[in-house]
Amino acid sequence: MTSFSFYRKLASFLLLIVGSQSVMAQTPPPAPATDEPELVEFDTSKTRSIAVPALVAPAPVDTAAGNSAALGRQIAEVISSDLRASGVFETQGPNGLRAIALPEVTAPQFDYWKGRTVEQLVQGFVRVGGDGNLTVGCYLYDVGFGNETTRLGFNVPPREWRRAAHKCADAIYAKLTGELPFFDSRIAYIAETGPKGKRVKRLAIMDSDGANHRFITNGQATALTPRFSPNYKSILYLSYVDGNPRIYVYDIDAGRQRLITQSRNPTFAPRWSPDGQTILYSMAVAGNTDIYKISASGSGTPVKLTTSPSIDVGGSFSPDGRQIVFESDRSGSQQIYVMNADGSNQRRISFGSGRYATPEWSPRADLIAYTRIAGDFRVGTMRPDGSGERLLTDSWQDEAPTWAPNGRVIQFFRTAKGSGKTSIWQVDLTGSNERQLPTPVDGSDPAWGPVLP
Question: Are 139 and 253 in a shared domain?
Answer without folding.
Answer: no
